[in-house]
Design brief:
Layout lengths: L44 E2 L21 E10 L12 H17 L7 E6 L5 H9 L5 H5 L14 E6 L4 E5 L5 E8 L3 H16 L6 E2 L3 E2 L11 E8 L1 H5 L3 H10 L2 E4 L12 E6 L7 H30 L1 H17 L5 H16 L8 H10 L2 H8 L5 H19 L2
Parallel strand pairs: 1-3
Antiparallel strand pairs: 2-6, 2-9, 3-4, 4-5, 5-6, 7-8, 9-11, 10-11
């Protein structure tokens, strides 16, 4: 994809210049020269490719990583003076995207990292799919469709990804003008919050956010008004499923005002007993209050329940645990056809066997890698061609079978 060269039409002096005026857009956006397809000290790489190796949140490290796969913090922000994306015109969204892109260009970054910008109108379908599967943007953002039915694939929107670790992604013109996200392995919400605060503060130095002195940050969805902060963890709860205690934990989380969703967030299924747990309301709750409640109270309680269920299975009903684990391992090592949810279900049980040290010849790293590689986008990217659904089932089974049988030798 060609780099967006609209910025080349501006003053070459490097001084800041004003974007087209709109009510609420009071501050100049710094202009940074960026050569097409290259990067300098202040710009960012424009266009693909999307990375395809193991990503940050699947490293299998960090606090409580036997149960908590990843932590994520996300801040929703909107520019003052512009309609929120669902109500904005295409021209508004284009202007918002240009403002936000230049803001992101101006952000400071650690040495050895680069920011890559994807204009999702021009991105290849495989790139959009990879970004979703790597948890760097939502499925809604990939489609460009809003809850009111507006938008589509040609809707002006983008995403910036901090490489190589992919700990930061910034979504432009999703449900809100900006969604700044940090994701890390294990229970590390505090570190994620620090990261998004750093990038959020950098953007706010350049533009004015929509903010109300009583209600806080204004957002498209009322549940995000206030701090605009959503904290979430991805947990793996297979032992609670086996022991029949999972629904109690899910109901308890719901009673505490927490959302419980599948691997890819809203609308996704919890295949493999992988769940995303997050706060639902931000109004009247400070960052510190949300962090303390989720990271130090809610998540440790869920982890203890799962760990207790695992210990109970190991000591009181080991044959049941081993039956679940080795049945799944046998299917994965012998299957010739695998659907995505079926593969996730069995990999989740194999992961349980690895963590409980029931399976000696499979590593946690290989299971985590397969969790990503079995996804349709990664599978087709690895083979370098588009596959039909039936072809993907064959290719997925072949990949899993070869990887797991190789490790057993």
């Amino acid at each position: 994809m060609q780099a967006n060269d609209q910025s080349d039409q501006s003053d070459q002096s490097g001084q800041s210049r004003d974007l087209p005026e709109r009510s609420g857009s009071k501050r100049p956006i710094p202009h940074i020269n960026i050569d097409r397809g290259s990067i300098d000290s202040g710009g960012m790489i424009t266009g693909g490719p999307v990375q395809s190796g193991t990503t940050e949140w699947l490293k299998g490290t960090g606090e409580m990583c036997d149960v908590v796969l990843s932590s994520r913090a996300r801040a929703a922000r909107n520019l003052a003076g512009f309609p929120f994306p669902p109500a904005a015109s295409s021209a508004d969204r284009s202007q918002i995207m240009e403002i936000c892109r230049r803001c992101i260009e101006s952000l400071g970054r650690d040495e050895g990292t680069t920011m890559r910008w994807f204009d999702l109108r021009d991105s290849e379908p495989i790139d959009r799919r990879l970004l979703v599967e790597r948890q760097l943007m939502s499925r809604q953002h990939a489609r460009g469709r809003y809850s009111n039915g507006q938008g589509g694939l040609d809707s002006p929107r983008g995403v910036a990804v901090l490489e190589p670790h992919e700990q930061i992604s910034i979504l432009v013109n999703e449900e809100d003008h900006l969604r700044v996200q940090a994701i890390r392995s294990g229970l590390s919400l505090h570190e994620c919050l620090d990261e998004i605060n750093r990038f959020d503060d950098g953007i706010e130095e350049v533009v004015e956010y929509a903010f109300h002195p009583q209600f806080g940050y204004l957002t498209a969805c009322p549940t995000n008004v206030g701090t605009g902060l959503r904290l979430s963890v991805m947990v793996h709860l297979p032992a609670l499923k086996i022991t029949g205690e999972l629904e109690k934990v899910r109901n308890a989380a719901g009673d505490m005002g927490l959302a419980v969703r599948g691997l890819y967030g809203e609308g996704s299924q919890a295949a493999g007993e992988f769940y995303q747990i997050s706060n639902q309301v931000t109004l009247g709750r400070s960052d510190e209050m949300l962090l303390r409640e989720i990271e130090r109270e809610v998540v440790p309680s869920i982890v203890r329940y799962e760990q207790h269920a695992r210990a109970q299975l190991m000591t009181e009903n080991r044959p049941l645990l081993e039956d679940h684990v080795f049945r799944s391992l046998g299917i994965l090592r012998g299957a010739r056809l695998l659907k995505p949810d079926e593969a996730l279900e069995h990999l989740g049980l194999v992961r349980l066997g690895v963590v409980c040290k029931v399976i000696p010849d499979v590593t946690l790293a290989s299971v985590h890698e397969l969790l990503l590689l079995i996804q349709p986008g990664h599978l087709q990217h690895a083979l370098g061609k588009e596959l039909s659904q039936s072809e993907r089932r064959v290719a997925r089974a072949t990949l899993v079978r070869e990887r797991l049988n190789f490790e057993s030798k």
